[in-house]
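User: Okay, second chain of the day. Same drill as before: sequence in, structure tokens out.
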Amino acid sequence: MTARSGARSPARPGFVPLDAYTEYPPPEMVRRAAAFRERVARRRTVREYSDRPVPREVIEECIRAAGTAPSGANHQPWHFVAVSDPEVKARIRAAAEEEERAFYRGGAPQEWLDALAALGTDEHKPFLETAPYLIAIFAERYMVRPDGSKVKNYYVQESVGIATGILITGLHHAGLATLTHTPSPMNFLNEILGRPPNERPFLLLVTGYPAEGALVPAIAKKPLEAIATFPRAAVSP
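Assistant: Same drill. Structure tokens below.
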């Protein structure tokens, strides 16, 4: 492990030195990258949950980690509502299942239903009540100043998507299972959770311990050559 070397850049107002960066020798970089890949490869989407309580501090730390994500103009256009109250979870389940019934019984194209069939999903979502935490993730379309004026946020979908990925990875790293749930539309989340109109529901993240004997679909991920390309430099004639 080595520290950064060389002369510092001239000081600029509003900037601080990059002192938190750590560089590793290439073999250590490869080892760390492979270890991380092996760890996240064990993550699975889980639909069967135990009702065992999860320490709130775990959820708080993972949300703090999500809040470190890069964002357009550093506006951090996200808000996370961590729901553990049984009555609120029951209301969310009822509203989500209403949307899901419409989806599965005529709202979705047959091609999409055929793709979902292998996963065994339907309109019944008991995990929305069983899991100890539901984290509703909201995308903030614009900020509202104290005087009521609006400030546009930039790259909102991209920023919130990155933050959500960090949150999912953080929860997995902490030892919890997750499920990304996206009933459509999700406007009921604003009403149930009291969120303002400038926030749009992005995703409902279910998290907790897997139920004993939980099953997951037998699926595989695409290999590197199917998801990445490393172009060679052009060769002059």
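The chain has a mean pLDDT of 92.

User: Thanks, on to the next one.
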